[in-house]
Amino acid sequence: MVHVAPLPGTPRAMDPMTDVIERAVTDARTLADAGFDALLIENMHDVPYLRRTVGPEIVAAMTAVGVAI
Predict the structure, then answer these.
(1) What are phi and psi of 32, to 5 degrees?
(2) Both ends of the chain: CA-CA distance in Å?
(3) Where are the domains of the chain?
(4) Please, which residues bridge with residue 6 across strands?
(5) What is the predicted pLDDT for the residue at 11?
(6) Helices 17-33 and 56-68 sit at what angle, rounded to 10 degrees?
(7) CA angle centred on 42, ends 39 and 66, rounded to 5°
(8) The pTM is what?
(9) Tens digit of pLDDT at every position of the chain (69 positions)
């Protein structure tokens, strides 16, 4: 599981997207090097969880992470 850092548009977001992506790619490489052949990407750190429709900025950020991985 790749736990993505807080994303833009969420209360705890502080890092630029370049850092968020770099950390996620590093985690994915670590899992691949350990022999995993599949992974899940999760925005676990977007707490407190938003109780509304997810905005386009979050969808775009998760898409950017997935493309980079």
Answers:
(1) -65, -45
(2) 12
(3) 2-68
(4) none
(5) 83
(6) 40
(7) 65
(8) 0.86
(9) 999 999 988 888 999 999 999 999 999 999 999 999 999 999 888 777 766 777 888 889 999 999 999
What is the 3-state secondary structure of the chain? CEECCCCCCCCCCCCCHHHHHHHHHHHHHHHHHCCCCCCCEECCCCCCCCCCCCCHHHHHHHHHHHHHC
Cα radius of gyration (the chain): 12
The dihedral of CA 18, 52, 46, 28: what is its sign? negative
Tokens standing for residue 34: 């350990």
- Residues in Cβ contact with 23 at an 8 Å cutoff, skipping those fewer than 6 apart: 4, 5, 15
